[in-house]
Amino acid sequence: MVNKDFTISHAAQKTGLTASAIRYYEDQGLLAKTTARINGRRVFDTKAIADLSLLNDLRLAGMTLTDIKEFQSQRRNAGATCASLAEIAQHRAAKLRAQIKAMRLAEERLRNFASNCSSQCGCSQASQCNQIDNLIKSS
Fold this sequence. Notes:
Layout: E1 6-7, H1 8-15, H2 19-27, E2 36-38, E3 41-44, H3 46-60, H4 65-76, H5 82-121, H6 131-137
Antiparallel strand pairs: 1-3, 2-3
Helix pairs in contact: 5-6
């Protein structure tokens, strides 16, 4: 793989992170290696881009900064096993499944409310909407 250097704005575009988040993660020591600087500006190689993409995935999975630091610590620890990373990932995946299930139910209730309110409500004022009671009862 050809190694290419990216500016922070390019790194942000490639990873979905903001430039300020990238700086913050770097300051917190979450990148595997310190990024290089050319003329005082950060540059990121393809390995750093991959690390930043992983950090974004972990963040999107709902991991806290402490969780991410633990994951990265295990990842860098020569004595750690893949099983330790897998355990962290499995724990987070289980939490995500529960959140996704709850979010799907919430989405369904909201869609039903929107559909019933617009087609069956007949109220002109939100304060008189009888579909709100149905939404609350389905929670």
